[in-house]
Design a protein that fits this description.
Number of domains: 2
Transmembrane segments: 185-204
Organism: Chryseobacterium salviniae
Protein name: dUTPase-like domain-containing protein
CATH class of the largest domain: Mainly Beta
Keywords: Membrane, Transmembrane, Transmembrane helix
Number of strands: 16
Length: 231
């Protein structure tokens, strides 16, 4: 395999891609203009409009304020650009250096020959601070390789186009997800609160008993003095 010179092998015209997808002069289709400022060997993909909870297929819209990722949490972000790979090109997805330095881990992935759709990228926040991802923010980098032969059919005959019914996540759903993701921490916190409550109960009961005992002794002394005075 050899790295493809993207300055001559990317197009944003579907007919050009489709008519040449089995040819040795095939093109990689990207539906947005691509800036090759980092050189012709790779392209950057940006944050799109949808994000996903791990192990869920339902998409949620990314608002204008962006999606906030808490420390040590993970989500899937859908990219803005739709990609179509010809049958003789294989792609790899990797993270960008800036995000890596911020403590963000971006899952490495592959783009099979014949793939059509918008990639979903796994994101993990390994830092101790919240990180915000906004639409159109550079997210990951793709490199493409020329294969020695063509596939006759794509490995997966499918399209991963965005779900147009995506909605922003509700506050109740967001809170539920945060509780689910932090259930171990919450269990420890509840145990600590219960333990502190037990200590507080013992302390209050001890003081109450000592207070009553002191009152009884004071009453006895007062009664003795009163009896002595009455004599």
């Amino acid at each position: 395999m050899s790295v493809i010179d993207l300055s001559t092998r990317i197009c944003n015209d579907w007919n050009t891609y489709n008519n040449n997808k089995r040819s040795s002069d095939s093109y990689i289709y990207v539906d947005h203009e691509i800036n090759l400022e980092d050189g012709p060997s790779s392209i950057d993909l940006c944050v799109g409009e949808n994000w996903y909870q791990p192990n869920e297929e339902k998409p949620y819209l990314i608002t204008d304020e962006g999606i906030q990722l808490a420390p040590f949490q993970s989500i899937l972000l859908e990219v803005k650009q739709e990609i179509a790979n010809p049958y003789n090109v294989f792609g790899l997805v990797t993270g960008k250096g800036l995000k890596i330095f911020e403590g963000v881990f971006i899952s490495t992935g592959k783009i099979n020959p014949g793939y059509v759709g918008k990639l979903k990228i796994g994101i993990y926040n390994g830092s101790k601070k919240k990180i915000i991802f906004k639409k159109d923010m550079p997210l990951c980098t793709c490199v493409f390789f020329a294969m020695e032969s063509n596939l006759q059919i794509p490995l997966k005959n499918r399209s991963d186009n965005s779900n147009t019914n995506a909605k922003p996540i509700g506050k109740a759903k967001y809170l539920k997800n945060r509780i689910k993701e932090n259930k171990e921490f919450l269990a420890i916190l509840i145990s600590i609160i219960a333990l502190l409550a037990s200590f507080a109960n013992v302390f209050l009961n001890r003081n109450f008993i000592l207070y009553n005992k002191q009152n009884v002794e004071n009453n006895k002394v007062t009664k003795t003095i009163n009896n002595g005075n009455s004599k």
